[in-house]
């Protein structure tokens, strides 16, 4: 299995998982744009949103549940939700993934979206806050 996200879903690669159901897994992005930046991926391999008919419907409940979790536990004021389809659109891993990027009042707007505002060294603390585990 060469797909990075398929290996994460299978448990072959470590991740900071915050939600899982029968169709999807959600885990913290290792290079977060903002505190709590999370990826939701389907358990089955689908290259992108345009490749897998019905996949969006399958993973939508996990996207919604994870977005609510981020809001409740991190206290964000807003959320960017997006998915890139294809390399020309900026997709770096060819496995469908939805970005949930919590947004905070001190860095509002779309222009501030892609300016890295999160410290990757805080991933364990953010994970503990989202999962209620010690950390």
Automatic annotation (TrEMBL):
Pfam families: HIT. GO terms for molecular function: catalytic activity. One of its GO terms (biological process) is nucleotide metabolic process. InterPro entries: Histidine_triad_HIT, HIT-like, HIT-like_sf. Signal peptide: none annotated. A motif (Histidine triad motif) lies at residues 95-99. Residues 4-110 form the HIT domain. It comes from the Bacteria. The active site is at residue 97. This is HIT domain-containing protein.
